[in-house]
Amino acid sequence: MIKLFADQLVFGWLGLDTTSQIGEALNFFIYDSIKIIFLLAVMIFFIALLRSFFPPEKTKAVLSKYKQSTAHLMAALLGVVTPFCSCSSVPIFIGFVESGIPLGVTFSFLITSPIVNEVALVMLYTIFGWKIGSLYLISGIAVGIIGGLIIDKLNLEKYVEEYVYQIKKTKTQLKKSTWQERINFAKNEVKTIVNRVWKYVLLGVGLGAIIHGYAPAAVLAKYAGDNNPLAVIAAVIIGIPLYSNAVGTIPIVEALLAKGVALGTALSFMMATTALSLPAMIILRKVIKPKLIAIFITVVGLSIIGVGYLFNFIINFI
């Protein structure tokens, strides 16, 4: 429905060419802005409704029954089955944080969700075979778990914006409340949080729209070719500013492989583009402070670089 509206507005009422860069960019901006803000509102509403029965203390008590590694694994697996790009994962991340779920566990979800999803996996299995597809799946989950565990160990909760914890500390268990009171509570939460972040959503998606469809295969082939020992690092650095989902980057990976780029290098570019997109970081800035964003990019970036070199090494043995 949202896609049809965006198409009709841009290519119908405004009359822009479907193949023009400005048409594609505007269509992308309208579609993703509405989609992400709608998703943000829906997720906050239902999480707030749930929080009216289960305050943060109870949520933490449930999670405490699991070992730390198990909680991170569960969050990473949830990321696998949620087909979101990095910007679309942010609203769920916000809901997790304000619900009292440990910060590192929420990051395990945030990292894994854009890197791995079932549609991308089917395409990877079909194009590259089950060995490569399975290795990518395992690597994506591992990056999410490792990244989340490291962030847990660093105790970075102080770098979450204070208003998130103020929401979390409010009395959310409404005793003997009617359903209407709980619904009103959830509506107020939606209004409060969306009012805080919608500008960042538009800024992030707007940047993504400008660079949407940009596939720097030639640049990557030049700086991340087989003969460059720093190829994986170059691929990650080039991939971070871009914005796409895992499915959208697979054709780029095919083009890179055709130009002689090593598999691990191409897949590390894919991971960096999906997990560390600049638009997603802009949206996250409204929730977490710059130092935590920098740590997040560093931890995940280094993990992806390690995966890239590992792929390049083991590809000769499979």
Task: Summarize the helix and strand pattern as letters.
Answer: HHHHHHHHHHHHHHHH
Taken from the alpha-carbon principal axes, the silhouette is globular
User: What's the gyration radius in Å?
Assistant: 20 Å
Ranges with pLDDT <50 over ≥5 residues? none
Tally of DSSP helical segments: 16
Report the sheet with the most strands, covering strand number, pairing sense and barrel closure.
Answer: none
Percentage of residues in DSSP E strands = under 5%
The pLDDT mean sits at: 77
Coarse structural class: mainly alpha
Q: Give the oligomer, counting copies of the same chain as homo and different chains as hetero.
A: single chain
Number of domains: 1
Helix proportion of residues, in percent? Answer: over 70%
Distance between the termini: 44 Å
Please report the total strand number as a whole number: 0
